[in-house]
Amino acid sequence: MFDVWKNVLAKLEQELSASSFLTWFDSVELLDIKDGTVIVGVPNVFKIKHIENRYNDKIKQALIENDVKFERVEYVLKSDTPKVKKGREVTTEEVMTPEKARKEHDGVRVPVRGVKQSTTGLSERYRMDNFVVGSNNDLAVSVAKAVIEHPGGRYNPFFLYGGPGLGKTHLVQAIGNEVLKNNPKLRVLYIPINHFYTEFVGAVRKGGMDEFRKKYREVDLLIIDDFQFIVGKEKSQEEFFNIFNDMHQAEKQIIVTSDRLPSQIKTVDERLASRLTMGGAFDLQMPSFEDRSAILQSMAEFMGVEIEPEAIQYLAENVKTNIRDLDREFKQIIAMAELRGMTPLELISGGYIDTTVRSSSTSKPTAKKIVEKVAKYYDLSVKEMCGKSRVAHIKTARQVAMHLLSEELQMSTTQITSEVGVKDHTTVMHGIKKIKSDLRLNFTLREQISEIRGSIYE
């Protein structure tokens, strides 16, 4: 029985990188085979979850190749797990303030970047060179670069929308910083809409409307953040509408961010909603696995810290909410690793941290759930969507399902064929390529996939 397990491990060692094999299968043992169940002992709960999610199919296939008859594989905690080296205990407060951990690294003082703000309202930490471009934001970034080169030009206003934590504030402040770098004489103002409202109310109360209006008339680039919070503030809308018209006629650049389109914000005046999107409305999507990996690598380079590829892979796979959560989890794991005197991967594989619990209350979706959610969104039955119909809207739904199975579960094209009812993996490849291409310019499709993705993790 145990010779069989040696063969299984040998097979896995051939298929995995050396670092992955040593990280995940060191001290993993076959404990028993009884009643159709293969029982595998694993050192800690984290490794159980990771092996089940990523390597279960490979283990099953290796067992089959060794003529082992079984119905299922069960992973259990080993009672004799060797202890991972342990540093001092870390308090919650220390982990929640990772900047403390970066002040001292290997005996060398490391400066913590400050956040410098001026009358522009801009933070110098938001730059284009530390904004990671991926498939989820490449179109918006292209437009942002055009705005930087020609403020007040083709994309005026520039309306940017998307869910919380996807990088809207970073991108628009980076535009402001780049514009100032190119032309320091330009007057740039970044202001959240609630601050605009507070200023407006104060000006009305104190009789300072002339000064208020003069301030905005003199601005060359106005960046309004979180426009959705203008709901119910009719007088502020009216004043902003007037400022908008004056600036636009003077060919001064206006940038507005929101978590949704103006037409989807209740009580927003139709004229204002129309004007805000006349330069185009561009969205930020949820980052894919590859995007999240690139973002994490960029964070590590920016902070000057080292993190193993396997640790990046773990975070990218488990933090799927937004970039803000990804940033928080990354900083916490780096802080705890430094305070314990361990590497991030040692911390993770040692079972000291479980990002899946803290970062998201949702579990990983199944292929079945994704297919069902897509079919429901397009008002189809699963049988209809996964059938042979070539009707346009059914074909599109099927291709969206292919795209989401690939993006959310990293399934191979061959695996996807069986989930969506097609025979040839090249059909899946074509479908995924078609959706990725359409997403660049089809904003309706972007909205649809964003809504479906949200429902998948409910």
Key attributes of the depicted protein:
single chain, 458 residues, alpha/beta, 5-stranded parallel sheet
Secondary structure layout:
Elements: H1 2-15, H2 18-25, E1 29-34, E2 37-42, H3 45-54, H4 56-65, E3 72-77, H5 92-96, H6 99-102, E4 104-105, E5 108-109, H7 138-149, E6 158-161, H8 168-182, E7 188-192, H9 193-206, H10 209-217, E8 221-225, H11 234-249, E9 253-258, H12 270-276, E10 281-283, H13 289-303, H14 309-318, H15 323-340, H16 344-349, H17 355-359, H18 367-377, H19 382-385, H20 392-409, H21 413-420, H22 425-438, H23 443-456
Parallel strand pairs: 2-3, 6-9, 6-10, 7-8, 8-9
Antiparallel strand pairs: 1-2, 4-5
Helix pairs in contact: 1-4, 7-8, 13-14, 13-15, 18-20, 18-23, 20-21, 20-22, 21-22
